[in-house]
Each structure stands twice: as structure tokens, then as C-alpha cells.
Specification:
11 strands, BirA Bifunctional Protein, domain 2, 3-stranded antiparallel β-sheet, 281 residues
Length: 281
């Protein structure tokens, strides 16, 4: 039995102080992004291309349009924003820096608010890392920024002939059971010194991507940095160095470098609901 006052599990309700805190957080971050040259976009809630962003399509809320084409509620903003700017609005604007404040939706009835940005036709990952660090400083919090490179677990899986699912599921014990010295050292990497030592041990085919990760780690100004070379995230479009920001078991941001329509870009999404919980604590 569903009572009149109930709301679906996973949906969000803000009122009074929580609504004010959400509005103030969104205003503070969007003001900084505006000052850094980002313009705002509000993309449609409905999308034809969400399957290209989300690895697990079961998370999509799907239905059909009037022509029986599959439509999904927006579960991720990145690729839709890039396509809209470069394809639909290409003749109306040549601006490359955009931000958005809007929710995403996943099956069966979950919604999550995000504050995100896309820096189109730009590939210096350090710029978006430092922008993320500036936002964390603005909010006066000091969470862990975990830096990774999606190509490393892919290359390692191929080199040692194991299923990439081991990395996606974080099954470190099974990787350690292989008893490969250089892999064991790579598993232990947490900081720049560890990463430099591991580069000397790994097979040549993996070194280039580790060196790319090392260069990014050395250039970023944010200090609470952890390096996780074997981490494999869930978003399909990141194809190079990428990162997530974590505090108190909350993931409060994901970002990195990706390619769409042959264009290399950067972006991140801050998870408003998680940020509010941390700021409240």
C-alpha cells in the first residue's frame, strides 16, 4: 500500500534548511565556474544515446518515443552536452567551456543532483584537476583525490592474460595470487615515489601509460592525492587519465579525459547530495 505522502525510494526531497544549503552550494560553485569562463547549459532530461555513457544498461530508465525509438532518462550528462554543443548548437556558438546544474536518473527510481562541467577540445588533464582542487578549497574541505589511468588495467589484463572484470570488481586478492613481482608492486602504488619505482619494473608495453599518470600527478597542485594505477571505473567514455574524489565513503566527484565524435575533451561531475552530507557533518 502506498500512502499519499510517500515518495519513491531513491528520489530526493529538499525543504527548509536543506533546500537553502543546496541552493547556496550550487550558487557558490557555479559562480566560480562562471568566473573561469564556463557558460551554463541545461540539457534535456530525455536522451537517445545514454547507452554510450553507462556501462550497465540495466541502470537506464527506458521508454519509447512517438516513432518507437528508444529513449532514456538522463543517467549521465557528459556525452549529451558535447553532442548538443558541437552538433546541434555548432553554428550558434563556438564556446568550448560549459557547466550544468541538473539531476541524473537511474533505474528503478533513483535521482542524483550534479554540478558538472565539460571543457571541449581541450586535453590538458592538469587544468581540470586543478579546477577541481580550487572548488574543494572554496568549499573548505580536503577529501582524497584518487588519480588513475583507464589504459593501465586494460594493458595489464592483456599482459598477464586475465579477465578485465577482475579490475572492474577490484578483486585484488586474485591478482596477488598470480605472484607476479611487478604486478604486486603496481598494486601497492599509492604515491608519486611508489609510482616511479614501479615504472622501472613493469613490462615496456605498460610504461608509457604509467609515465603519463606520473606526469599528471607531479603537475597537479592539490596535495591530498592518492595514485591508483589499477583502478577501473564504471563510465564508458573515459579513455585516459581520470580521477574521483572521496571522503567518508562518499564519492563526491568523478572526472577525466575522454573522446567524443573524434574530439578530445575534459570534464567532471560533482555529486551535490554527497557534498551536502559532508558539509553538514
Amino acid at each position: 500500500m502506498i500512502f499519499e505522502h510517500e515518495i519513491p525510494k531513491g528520489s530526493r526531497l529538499y525543504f527548509g534548511k536543506s533546500a537553502k544549503a543546496k541552493r547556496e552550494l550550487e550558487y557558490k560553485i557555479s559562480t566560480l565556474l562562471d568566473q573561469r569562463g564556463f557558460e551554463e547549459i541545461v540539457s534535456p532530461n530525455f536522451s537517445y544515446s545514454q547507452h554510450q555513457s553507462i556501462a550497465n544498461e540495466r541502470k537506464l530508465i527506458k521508454f519509447s518515443d512517438e516513432q518507437n525509438e528508444q529513449v532514456s532518462l538522463r543517467a549521465d550528462s557528459t556525452l549529451d552536452v558535447v553532442r548538443i554543443i558541437t552538433k546541434r548548437l555548432g553554428r550558434a556558438t563556438d564556446h568550448k567551456k560549459w557547466f550544468y546544474v541538473q539531476p541524473i536518473f537511474t533505474y528503478p527510481s533513483s535521482e542524483e543532483y550534479q554540478i558538472g562541467c565539460e571543457w571541449i577540445c581541450h586535453d590538458n588533464i592538469v587544468d581540470i584537476l586543478n579546477l577541481t582542487g580550487d572548488i574543494l578549497e572554496l568549499l573548505e574541505i580536503d577529501p582524497i583525490l584518487q588519480l588513475s589511468n583507464i589504459n593501465i588495467p586494460k594493458l595489464v589484463a592483456k599482459e598477464v592474460d586475465v579477465d578485465i572484470e577482475l579490475f572492474k570488481k577490484g578483486e585484488i586478492a586474485k591478482l596477488l595470487s598470480l605472484k607476479i613481482d611487478w604486478l604486486n608492486e603496481l598494486i601497492k602504488v599509492k604515491d608519486i615515489d611508489d609510482l616511479q619505482k614501479s615504472i622501472e619494473l613493469v613490462p615496456a608495453v605498460i610504461k608509457k601509460e604509467l609515465e603519463k599518470l606520473l606526469a599528471s600527478a607531479k603537475a597537479v597542485s592539490y596535495k591530498n592525492l592518492v595514485i591508483a594505477p589499477l583502478y577501473h571505473g564504471s563510465l564508458k567514455y573515459y579513455d585516459d587519465v581520470y580521477y574521483r574524489v572521496i571522503q567518508d565513503n562518499y564519492v563526491i566527484c568523478k572526472g577525466g579525459k575522454y573522446s567524443s565524435e573524434g574530439i578530445s575533451s575534459l570534464g567532471f561531475a560533482l555529486y551535490t547530495d554527497s557534498l551536502l552530507k559532508i558539509l553538514e557533518d
